[in-house]
């Protein structure tokens, strides 16, 4: 029997009509949305706010993170050359104001898919003038050239998630390294200080308070300006178990700590996800800078 969820973790009501329309549009363009692939509890809310997260480079990831619902394995196809334009056309059709572009990790590609990210940014700039563009990238195995390729395409926001505390990396993010992820954020700021950097982490996987505070301190020292903190929720039985459901007041405490460290925006709560209310997070950060 599955553990009973605490009162502050309640399933959000979904607007099924809205979701069907979005799914139909994505299928027509042969696109993937991380909102759907990860069954994000906020997806209806984001769609109605004029934001969405597109997942490029296919739907098969080369890494085996224990928390993620995306299929893992060897990707069966090269990047679609039509995908960048299809993302832009779909963003225009959805009247999006803030677009988040993420991807599966493609360690099989020499540049990790960086050129595909850059092409998608350029198409969005051409097709949807004025749209805010946020990228949520993998670590590109620490390849500074790949980070530069994406940064020089000038997204408004460059997001790379550390996901958890260093001690849990081998368990939660095999194949990834905490210092490598910090290096991505530092490199973006070195290349273009005007790009806002962002990161996120999940709670409830067995981390300690002092470890979370240490991660926040290290993110801020790396030039990260925006941070999101949310509760890990097991997407299916085969994935990592939830060790602890973090109480809302603890999330409030971490938000206060982050603000005191000097982050421009800290969004912290049980249902917060990396792309949750991305437009509002961005606005908050811009208003405080």
Protein topology:
Layout: H1 16-28, E1 32-33, H2 34-37, H3 43-49, E2 51-56, E3 60-61, E4 71-72, H4 83-93, E5 98-103, H5 114-127, E6 132-136, H6 144-151, E7 157-159, H7 169-172, H8 178-191, E8 196-203, H9 209-221, E9 226-231, H10 248-261, E10 265-268, H11 278-288
Parallel strand pairs: 2-5, 3-4, 5-6, 6-7, 7-8, 8-9, 9-10
Antiparallel strand pairs: 1-2
Helix pairs in contact: 1-3, 4-5, 5-6, 6-8, 9-10
Describe it.
With 289 residues, the protein is α/β, with parallel strands linked by helices. It is built from eleven helices and ten strands. The protein has one domain: Alpha-Beta Barrel (TIM Barrel), CATH 3.20.20. 39% of the residues lie in helices and 15% in strands. Strands 1-2-5-6-7-8-9-10 form an eight-stranded mixed β-sheet, with helices on both faces. Strands 3-4 form a two-stranded parallel ribbon. Helix 9 (209-221) links the parallel strand 8 and strand 9 (226-231). It starts with 15 loop residues before the first helix and ends with a helix.
Structure summarized in a few sentences:
The chain is 39% helix and 15% strand. It contains eleven helices and ten strands. Strand 5 (98-103), helix 5 and strand 6 (132-136) form a beta-alpha-beta unit.
Model regions low in confidence, pLDDT < 50 over at least 5 residues: none
Which secondary-structure class do the elements indicate?
alpha/beta
**CATH topology description:** TIM Barrel
The string of secondary-structure elements, in order, is: HEHHEEEHEHEHEHHEHEHEH
Number of strands: 10
Number of domains: 1
Strand content range = 15-25%
CATH A-level architecture: Alpha-Beta Barrel
Biggest sheet character: 8 strands, mixed
| Oligomer kind | single chain
- Mean pLDDT level: 86
Instruction: Going across the biggest sheet, name each strand in turn.
Output: 1-2-5-6-7-8-9-10
Q: Sum up the overall morphology in one term.
A: globular
Radius of gyration: 18 Å
Name the helicity range. 25-40%
């Amino acid at each position: 029997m599955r553990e009973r969820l605490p009162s502050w973790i309640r399933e959000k009501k979904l607007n099924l009509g809205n979701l069907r329309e979005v799914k139909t549009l994505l299928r027509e363009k042969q696109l993937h949305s991380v909102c759907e692939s990860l069954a994000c509890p906020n997806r209806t809310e984001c769609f109605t706010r004029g934001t969405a997260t597109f997942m490029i480079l296919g739907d098969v990831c080369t890494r085996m993170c224990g928390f993620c619902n995306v299929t893992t394995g060897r990707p069966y196809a090269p990047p679609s050359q039509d995908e960048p334009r299809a993302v832009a056309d779909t963003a225009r059709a959805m009247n999006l104001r803030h677009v988040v572009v993420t991807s599966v990790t493609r360690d099989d590609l020499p540049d990790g898919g960086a050129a595909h990210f850059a092409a998608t940014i350029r198409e969005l700039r051409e097709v949807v003038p004025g749209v805010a563009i946020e990228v949520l990238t993998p670590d590109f195995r620490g390849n500074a050239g790949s980070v530069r390729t994406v940064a020089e395409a000038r997204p408004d926001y460059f997001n790379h998630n550390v996901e958890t505390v260093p001690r849990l990396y081998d368990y939660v993010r095999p194949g990834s390294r905490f210092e490598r992820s910090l290096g991505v954020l530092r490199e973006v700021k070195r290349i273009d200080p005007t790009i806002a950097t962002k990161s996120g982490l999940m709670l409830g996987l067995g981390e300690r308070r002092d470890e979370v505070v240490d991660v926040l301190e290290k993110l801020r020292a790396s030039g990260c300006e925006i941070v999101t903190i949310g509760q890990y929720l097991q997407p299916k039985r085969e994935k990592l178990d939830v060790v602890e459901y973090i109480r809302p007041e603890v999330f409030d405490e971490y938000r206060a700590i982050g603000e005191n460290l000097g982050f421009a925006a800290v969004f912290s709560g049980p249902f917060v996800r990396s792309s949750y209310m991305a437009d509002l997070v961005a606005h908050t950060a811009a208003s405080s800078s």
